[in-house]
Amino acid sequence: MSNLNFKEHILLFLSLLFVIDVWAQDMSPTDLVNPFIDTGAPRTRWFYFSSACRPFGMVNLSPDMWTKGDWGSGYLYDEDHIRCFSHIHAWEMGGVAVMPTVGEFQGHKGMEVYKSKYSHEGEIAKPGFHKVFLDDYGVQVELTSTTRVGFHKYTFPASEQSYILFDGGAHVGHGSTVYAEAWRVNDTDIAGYEIMEGIIRRPKDFPVYYYARLSKPFQSIITWKDSSIVKNTDPERISGWNSGLAVKYSTKENEEILLKVAISYVSVEQAKLNLETELSHWEFEQVKEESFKEWNNWLSRIEIEGGTNEQQVKFYTDLWHSLLGRRTVSDVDGKYMDMTGPYPRVRRVRLSEEGVPLFPHYNFDAWWGSQWSLNILWSMVYPEVMDAFCNTMVDIYQNGGLIPRGVTGGNYSYVMIGDPASSFFATAYNKGIRNYDTKLAYEGLQKNAFPGGIRERAGYEHRFNPSGGGISYYIKQGYVPHDRPNIQGYHSQASASMTLEYAYQDWCLAQLALTMNKIDDFEYFMKRSQNYKNLWNAKTGYIQPKDMNGNWVNNFDPLALSGFCESNSAIYSHFVPHDISGLIKLNGGSDRYVQKLDKQFKKSELNGFCMASHKIKNDANWTDYCNQPGTGMAHLFNHAGAPWLTQYWVRKIKDEYSNITPYGGYKGDEDQGQMGALGVLMAIGLFEMDGGASANPIYEITSPIFKKIIIHLDSNYYPGKDFIIDTENNSDRNIYIQNAILNGKAWNKYWFSHEDFKNGGFLKLTLGSKPNKKWGVE
Predict the structure, then answer these.
(1) Residues 466 and 610 in one domain
(2) By three-state DSSP, how is residue 428 classified?
(3) Segment 232-283, tens digit of pLDDT
(4) Domain check: are 92 and 208 in the same one?
């Protein structure tokens, strides 16, 4: 508390009042979610905040305080104006900005003119719903949605000049709108499309189509282009750059007008199909309640008892985030737009015998780092989600020839480095999640591990003959050299990180090959997985980049960023999830390794376990729980014979990230639910250091923050009903495991098998204030 300024004290107090108020009621998980967490941070990303949205919804409808850029955009708690309500807050995509106004028409003058002040007083944001009042216009706005349809309810004042704007010229999200067209269909329906400009991560222009329907016939239409109202031979259609359309009403005091906006990335006709299939009526409250119910069904797959009010709020907000950031891009009939080739093609996902799509198709950022977050959580609690994403990646492989790191706008983004999909697929397959073409999946992953595959490209390297990934050097020399000639692409200088991640991904492929009985491949990739040792410098005790000739790069500093991806050697030197015993041996044995690792945590504790920046060197950067590369480090003590230190540091990190005000929560890059998923795993006391990719997966145990956790298992994948963790003497002081009982038997291992998990079970943990250094060291 002493580190908070006055404003943060007030916000914390208000957040606690919110928690106390809802705690007194019969709480559901949806009631405990606080969407405002971390929205006051300057690093909030465009896709971060989604209020009126279903799980993985195509529509992500919410207020936008700022609409330009990846960072510092979308919903920003401290901004005092709302510029629009837009329907797409996806990774590298945005569009369909709508705004109600009253009074003199100013839609053609742009958002900076027609924006409105608002207040947090009376504002409500919950999973599936948002309510806010536009002060400048006297309009109350309520928002909800289905998966593909945004549903607006506007309560207008009495006015002869009430408008609803469709601003096709707005810069919404990551890039400009280069072309838009909108037209009147009839007295209640509007249709149109917008072309999102290509950007570095999504180099091709990409369309979004919409079909809108109003509950009341409008009186007239106003169109504009290039900041001027257009009066032409076709006043009910407008097209071009910086163009838009508005509908006009005369409204009575407190008159409600409802608006439904469906989107599609395929066509206007498909958008209309989405609307009429998902939302054929005008019952706003019904859709809102259905959204709450759907979110509760998803969030209730993990039930918790005990803990503080704040811990429960943070837990369900974290779980909510893990189901948000990655977006559905296929229509109700399974159609989606493929942009991997030289021209757009409409594709369709696999259908059931009844003609129903078996899985959605998705837009998503890279899986980079997801081995310590989403891979574990989804495979435990939401296996059907892993199945769906595996299907998406196999479809993309068939369409474009590569399994992606991340895909946006129907095309490869080549974001980040390596092939993190290898761990995703290995975890899915080795936990029995296999409702996709597993043969094609393995074929694509194997291709990615050689020249011509995804590992040959560094971040955003779209050119025809890529080389930034250095995979040919890795195969030939056993590491990626730092000074490779003629390299381009973002992160192409992250040679040491590439070497380490390729080694782990080789191991993941080996585990997949072993389960598939591809023994030659297993042996080959297992041998390659030891390449991480080629960058171990015994003199410095760190992973260190090498040049083309095998010499250590000069002027090495473990806190320097050169050679590493959004991190440094101090953190990446612990990135050997697949061979921790080998890493410990390189460090001189368990005792020396524990001392080294513990010292790093003690240094970084003063700075909140958060790297000050992944762009500059800083003495604080000994650990990093603000970004992916270091988020497994606290669990390494389990493997080094000191599980009590995993228990201690995991609890410390949870406390550090427990702030539930708009200025707390994640501190850095939440990255489409990855940090939320990590928070869930830490809270329930389960983890998988190897990401769960092993041919025989295990779960590592640490100290949960709740009295009881019930994980309801999906009967379509796992035979058991529930896996239950129950703790005794749990408190903020009693953080150390004294003893454990698994399914009625004394348990002195820090891990248990996935077989125990999937069959359902009961883990009893007794906690105390002092470490039991004998538990968990068998």
Answers:
(1) yes
(2) helix
(3) 666 689 999 999 999 999 999 999 999 999 999 999 999 999 999 999 999 9
(4) yes
